């Protein structure tokens, strides 16, 4: 397993991290096994949000974590706040209340990273700054970041927030490549040229912000996994061929494809299956060649200009 210094914070996070959005479906023994297998594979970052399972995911994690043979200080617990029922809320009051709820459910006195989950149109950056100051001073949060944010939204926050914003968690898979397409198709009239994110990939690289890729095996937002999907026969073939050559699974190749990018991202994998998580962790030690990376990209239906 390789590790990355997340946004220069000094927090070393595994390049393959475990997303905990779906773990509420597991019983305690299954979850303890999943977490143990993840830790044994070198995974040290666990991604949460206050809303996953309506709080249940943090709660079952907190209960199971005590039975896993790993010390709290040897893992990074990350959570997110700001999504509420029918609206987004980056108010100071909500951020503080959300973190207190997460700490209590996770059974810990601090989280290592706190991310603002989705942009709040009504954000008051000075309020976010005040909340972050209070959480940092109280030792409840070590480092801060955002998720699904545009460069200008991050710039606005950076005017007020005193702590560095060390990560931006964004949707990225080989079948969801907008942030890469736009950079390849500059000034072309092809659909890939469409800039949906304000150049967020290069912005994060310029500012040393670590991108954490979410839904690394999905296409669309809720459509399903890109593995064996009838829409992607060529991708399926390319992933299988590369997997055979590298002696890993096709899913691990899809993750290795993300990790091959020189932005040095983290991939948040969301499987609840211990064997799958172990095989996905192997992606961290696989280096795709430049031709293989482009072949997988093209096999997903992306065109080069
Ligand atoms: N910031 C955001 O807005 C945002 C949004 C969404 C997610 N996230 C984070 O990203 C994490 C990952 O998201 P995700 O769960 O959508 O990621 P994912 O890793 O792309 O998908 C995991 C899902 O794919 C299924 N799957 C089917 N075949 C698989 C295979 N061969 N290998 C692995 N998985 C397979 C898994 O089922 P099994 O469980 O049966 O293996 C699971 O339901 C979440 O847990 C959350 O922490 C963040």
TrEMBL record:
Domain of life, source organism: Bacteria
Residue spans crossing the bilayer: none
Residue intervals of the NADP-dependent oxidoreductase domain: 16-290
Annotated InterPro entries: AKR, AKR_Detox_Biosynth, NAD(P)_OxRdtase_dom_sf, NADP_OxRdtase_dom
CDD domains reported for this sequence: AKR_BsYcsN_EcYdhF-like
Designated name of the protein: Oxidoreductase
Species this chain originates from: Asanoa iriomotensis
């Amino acid at each position: 397993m390789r590790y990355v210094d997340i946004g220069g914070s000094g927090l070393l996070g595994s390049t393959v991290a475990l997303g905990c959005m779906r773990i509420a479906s597991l019983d305690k023994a299954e979850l303890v096994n999943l977490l143990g297998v993840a830790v044994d594979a070198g995974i040290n970052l666990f991604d949460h949000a206050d809303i996953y399972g309506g709080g249940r995911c943090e709660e079952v994690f907190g209960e199971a974590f005590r039975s896993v043979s790993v010390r709290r200080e040897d893992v990074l617990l990350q959570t997110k706040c700001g999504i509420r029922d029918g609206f987004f809320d980056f108010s100071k009051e909500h951020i503080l209340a959300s973190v207190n709820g997460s700490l209590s459910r996770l059974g810990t006195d601090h989280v290592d990273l706190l991310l603002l989950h989705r942009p709040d149109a009504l954000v008051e950056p000075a309020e976010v700054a005040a909340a972050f100051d209070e959480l940092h001073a109280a030792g409840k949060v070590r480092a801060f970041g955002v998720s699904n944010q545009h460069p200008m939204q991050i710039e606005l926050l950076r005017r007020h927030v005193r702590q560095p914003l060390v990560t931006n968690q964004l949707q990225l898979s080989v079948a969801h490549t907008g942030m890469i397409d736009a950079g390849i198709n500059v000034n072309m009239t092809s659909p890939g040229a469409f800039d949906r994110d304000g150049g967020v990939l290069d912005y994060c690289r310029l500012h040393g912000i670590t991108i954490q890729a979410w839904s690394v095996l999905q296409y669309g937002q809720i459509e399903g996994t890109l593995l064996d999907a009838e829409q992607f026969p060529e991708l399926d073939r390319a992933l299988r061929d590369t997997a055979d050559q590298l002696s890993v699974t096709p899913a691990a190749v899809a993750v290795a494809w993300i990790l091959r990018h020189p932005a040095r991202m983290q991939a948040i994998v969301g499987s609840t299956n211990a064997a799958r998580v172990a095989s996905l962790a192997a992606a961290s030690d696989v280096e795709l060649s430049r031709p293989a990376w482009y072949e997988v990209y093209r096999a997903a239906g992306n065109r080069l200009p």
